[in-house]
Design brief:
single chain; 2 helices
Amino acid sequence: MDVLEYWHPSIKWSGFKQGAVSERMWGYFCQLVQLCHAHGHWQKVTQDVRLTPPRSSVYGPESKYQRNKRRNEWKGEIMLAYSSATRSERVGL
């Protein structure tokens, strides 16, 4: 699961009991739980980045090029987080 490449959930597996479930199904269940946590994480990160306005320039007045470059970097962070959330959604299908 490449969606877990940049973030890995810390799950207390002691709260889960395998019971009569086979090892194979248990493995799939554990992957599903991790995938659900990853999706929730990346969805929250995307929302947080979207709600944070682009940082202002520390160098005073800036040109149109500098302003657009800063805005595009901000949008890039949003797209990175969004693509991670989207990949985690698609893996679950």
